[in-house]
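Listing 4. Sequential folding, example run.
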Amino acid sequence: MDMNPARQPSLATDGGLGDEAESRGPRGIQSVEVGGQLLKALVRSGSALPLKDLARAAGMAAAKAHPYLVSFGKIGLIEQDPVSGHYGLGPLALQLGLIGLQQVDPVRLAVAELPALAQAVGCTVSAAVWGPVGPIIVHVEHGPTAVHVAMRHGTPASLRHTGTGKIFAAFAPPAAVTEALAREGETHALQDPAFVAELDAIRRERLSRVRDELLPGISAMAVPVFDGFGRLALAIAAIGPSALLDLSPGSTQAHALRTAAERLSQRLGAIGGL
């Protein structure tokens, strides 16, 4: 046995490689990472693909992609349609996705996102979910400005007159919206052409905007967050003095809200953030 220290590899005290290897970060298996591009390509496409198209979408040659697909098929991550020959996600991939959705807490994810969002938009931000009687604010994060809007957890949001509420009016199940509007004394709101047109615009833009409706000098805008089933999971909103909140759809603040909503939607399983 060669006992010359100069010829021995440098070992860390935990039995691993020395500092040089440790500085490179955790070591992965490159072939798994390469094959994973095929799974990502299928997720992005949203439908089964022929080998040639799937390989192209993953950035590799068909001959290289095929062995990965065979192995993925054996464990249920991929399955091939016996008629068309197209490749789609298999039963194991679907089971993993469903379990992942069950384990994700939308409110927890939103709460973690709000501090950075408040700094980005420069005002108070909030997250709301659909409660027993309508939209309920479940978390508030104050921004860096000295002026704060008086809000607290558990505050209901008007479907007709708040940015948060209008997101739910636009995207929540119509029967639930109709019932909640009736509780607010807005029984005929969905028969008002102006309100209906506003909700249609919110669905197109994925953005609601309110200026001086409930409180003079206070404006708000809100965006929807969707889950992996395409359902509205929650709404996040920015609220502040009208002079500090740019309500135009292309504003920096609107972009920050949309980006946060897309990131949360993707974490909840929505393809492309919907």
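-- end of first protein; second protein begins --
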Amino acid sequence: MWQAQLQQWQQWQQIPASLTQLNWPQWLAIAGMSSAISSIVVLLVQGLKDRVTYRRERRDAALEVAISLEGYARVCRAMMHRADWARDELDRTGNREAVKSAMLPAFLFPEKIQWRRLGHRVVSDLRDFPARIHAGREDLGSFADYGDPVALCEEVSVECAKAARDALALARETRKKHGCVPWRPGAKDADLNRDLLTFISAAEEKRDARRNRQTMSVGPAIISEAAGADSRIALQ
């Protein structure tokens, strides 16, 4: 019994000697290097997580913007149909009240959009869009007070088509620059952009033709009026 205790005591006495034989500076350096490597790995992993989170939030913000613009394009197309109905109703019944329902729809982005996640140039273009829509509504409002109701319905249709075209272009650019999936419209909206471009082109050709007719009709009147003035001066 006492021999086992003596042997255990001798082993405990040998531990301080083995500790003094260790190269402590080297062990401390290894431990410090391991700690530094662990800290770097933790920082890299955390930075990677933050980057992934930032990209996800950026895509979410861009997607929210694109969806609101695409929804506005659909609203504008519906207003184009309403303007056509108002014009037909005016021609059929002479009721001007139907024309009052035809107007370029207002537009505002959702308040929850995190603009700080998006690029500065993209935000500048996007924030300018509601202002342009507001200016268009003001112009149409002035035209509604003094212009021809039939012409107003035509102007509303054209301005709605242009606003929808611009909204789809902004949505497409926003999705592309921020890595969002492309817009996949349903069968009803599959040809929306092409239909808008076709309508705008036809409306502009119609407008130019009407202006040319007005110019041609005004020209002879001006000439005849000038000739009459010359004859009156000669008689005097």
